[in-house]
Amino acid sequence: SITIDSTAMGPEIADTMYGVFLEDINSAADGGLYPELVRNRSFEFNPADSGSYTGLTAWRETATGGATGSLRVVDDAERLNERNRNYLRLDLDGGAGAGAGYGVSNAGFHTGMALTAGDSYTFSVWARTDNPAGTPLTVSLRTAAGQALAADLAIDVRGDEWTKYSATVTPTTSATDGSLVVTAGGGGTVRLDMVSLFPEETYKNRPNGLRKDLAEKIAALNPGFLRFPGGCLVNTGSHEAYEAPNWPRKRSYQWKDTVGPIEERATNHNFWGYNQTYGLGYFEYFQFAEDIGAMPLPVVPALVTGCGENRATDDPILLQRHIQDTLDLIEFANGPVDSTWGRLRAEMGHPEPFGLTHVQVGNEENLPDAFFERFVRFRAAIEAEYPDITVVSNSGPAPDGATFDRLWALNRQAGVELVDEHYYVSPQWMLENNARYDSYDREGPEVFLGEYASRGNTHYNALAEAAYMTGLERNADVVRLASYAPVLAHEDSVQWSPDLIWFDNSTSWSTPNYEVQRLFGNNVGDAVVPSRATGTPALTEPITGAVGLSTWATSAAYDDVRVVSADGTELFADDFSQGAARWTHAVPAGTWTVQDGAYLQTDTAATNTLVTAGDPAWRDYDLHLKATKRSG
Ligand code: AHR
């Protein structure tokens, strides 16, 4: 029974309580929310990013009608601009008949371009030619087997100055293995850059906008805030600026790299192992926040790296530059149109301010003292110029530990307003720690639970998260904001699981965890009404949804394998990224009953522990195997 005390009123719950955190992990941005269909559109991929990358990653040479030529990616004085240095040079032999062409094809991200009959796509390219007669470009959409999906486009490139050409193409046939083919006729040298195929329909039809189904699923959460752009993406990598000709490739996410015309945004290598174009940059994030009615909450690097890197940059000039960049970011978001950065915002199409109120400095830091020395300098500079901006700090890897304790002590001492906590835990932990915030100091900093999840996308995980969120809400006077993480995952590019929304190139689907977030986000109360429950049943429901027992040949095929008992106790967990498997609990003898025909077998000869089906020689347990199949 639940007793409600309608005479007392608990803490108020802010409208911004439940939000979302977006980071380009699991191809969330490039290849996901940012719907550019051409991968490596500006030929900037480089072996320095990843051993398998070249300027021609995702591109293939192609020819029609017997045309011949040669191609290479070059970085020379003819480049499009200093931030987009590589381009594709085609040297055409000429001499083949009319309609013949030599050039390239691009198969897009992962499994090929998903193209829908009747939908329109904008093809665009920056091009120049030294052929005085001009160069005819033929643009086709084809399946992997070469079947045409739309009438070809014909583009006439004229002159040896970089010029942007664009045209609309509407497929008459749908495909999920589409590719874009661009060939050039005649002779001479033609140069191409920023080859793009972009859906005309985007979320709210913004130019350079967002993939509609994914943006709509995020919007349906009714988020109170949008934290972006990371995560480890922000605080790892070099803190050097992107300045030609000395441009570090693995840079932390720095907002100035991501604004202005898209052809002037430099490609960067992402902490999660792939390249990002910054097509989805700070302007687009601010605009998305506005479109979904969410408070924007950007995160800037504090010149200390976390996420396993653990380095602090001591260069005072660099530190000062980052502090100034943060002040400039606030001007970009809120400044008048005659200010330097406010003008850029206006030129990008948004003269009105974005209404920025919070900036987070640093993410999940591992070096508490080094981070804090820098944090207080950022905060002092921001507060001196923008006293109304809340500067958010963090607590390192939570939910506990020496770093966490030290950072909380430093945050408390310095009178920080809001501290970001992150934790990824078992559902059992969530059930056992519902009261975590009941005892938090009401005089100290407030909590921004910027990243949390229980490890799994099952119904049971979702219920555990819902139960935990009642504890957050009960403590809404100290827990001000909370966001599940990560939000998006392309099923062919998984660096982190579980995630809230899954997708492939053409479709997307939500999870039970998503439904919990949607429920809470769309039903934010005004205030907590004190209540007491008695006779609460113990949580003894078995976990359902066992997978893979009969097909699991080798643990190397799976990520994140867990074995749990019927009462939710995790017995074995292995994400296979952290070395050998480990038993997290001893298996008690003879206390388990058979269910679903699952048997547990320990293979002492192998590094990993195997779970197999059906061998009665082994002791029976009431177990469920949960595993995510490794992509590829
Ligand atoms: O959400 C995935 C990662 O988890 C984030 O990048 C990082 O902040 C945390 O460790």
UniProtKB/TrEMBL annotation:
Enzyme class per UniProt: hydrolase
Record field: catalytic activity: Hydrolysis of terminal non-reducing alpha-L-arabinofuranoside residues in alpha-L-arabinosides
Any GO molecular function: alpha-L-arabinofuranosidase activity
EC numbers: 3.2.1.55
Calcium found in the keyword field: no
Protein name according to UniProt: non-reducing end alpha-L-arabinofuranosidase
Transmembrane segments: none
Record has Hydrolase as a keyword: yes
Covered range of the whole protein: 40 to 671 of 850
GO-annotated biological processes: L-arabinose metabolic process
